[in-house]
Amino acid sequence: MSAEISQQCRICKISKPTMMRCTRCRCAYYCSRACQVKEWPVHKGVCCTAAAHLTEKSQNADTVSSNTATVQCKGIEEDKSIKTTCEERLTIVIKCHKEKIKVNISKHWNGEEILNHISVAIKIKKLKLIHKGRIMNADNVLECVRENALFQAIGEKNEDEDGLNSSDIDCIVAQAKVNRNEAVRALRRTGDVVDAILYISNK
After folding, report:
1. Of 12, 45, 67, 113, which is least surrounded by CB within 10 A?
2. What whole-number distance in Å separates Cα of residue 30 and Cα of residue 172?
């Protein structure tokens, strides 16, 4: 039985073409899982009584996530199916500069997204990734990504920019015509944008 548009959410009092319904008592309607969770402490007291008069069996429990907890609620049914999936992840190992770094990868990412994520995670720019003697690219990295797979990363490690003003680094890069790592090193050495530019030009 589908929810009619006239049915209102018990919390926010709005109606939608697609509503959720308590499948235990089949009397309460909600516009979202969040509203159902909010109502549940009040509704559960009357739900059991109403359900006793029904001949239909209750549906399996649905797990409803709120911002602070996961609540197990019986009898939540969507008249139109809404699929909620948890993103599947796996962990790969990156060997870089004598370190082994574990990086979480989503199984749903494409090759380019994986390479970009690894580059950011291990703070390597112009990343060259190698697996079993093969250089990885956006086309072949997917076939090599599996749980605990080992990769070798080659490239220049990004300098730590913590405590520095990003706009100061950008200014040095533009004025001194150097890469970002060089700008960071110069700024850390001198402590001033102008001094950093002079330091680089005098090298």
Report:
1. 67
2. 56
Q: Tell me the three-class secondary structure of the chain, residue by residue.
A: CCCCCCCCCCCCCCCCCCCEEECCCCCCEECCHHHHHHHHHHHHHHHHHHHCCCCCCCCCCEEEECCCCEEEECCEEECCCCCCCCCCEEEEEEEECCEEEEEEEECCCCHHHHHHHHHHHCCEEEEEEEECCEECCCCCHHHHCCCCCEEEEEEEECCCCCCCCHHHHHHHHHHHCCCHHHHHHHHHHHCCHHHHHHHHHCC
Quote the tokens at residue 104: 């979480």
Token output for 159? 């300098």
Helix (H, G, I), strand (E, B), or coil: what is residue 146? coil
The pLDDT tens digits of the residues spanning 102-142 come to: 999 988 899 999 998 998 888 887 889 999 999 999 999 99
pLDDT of 50 reads: 55
Contact yes or no for 14/5 (Cβ under 8 A)? no
Q: What is the mean pLDDT of the chain?
A: 77
In a 13 Å sphere around the CA of 6, the CA atoms on its Cβ side amount to 0
What pLDDT is stored for residue 10 in this prediction?
82
Residue 68 tokens read as: 């602070």
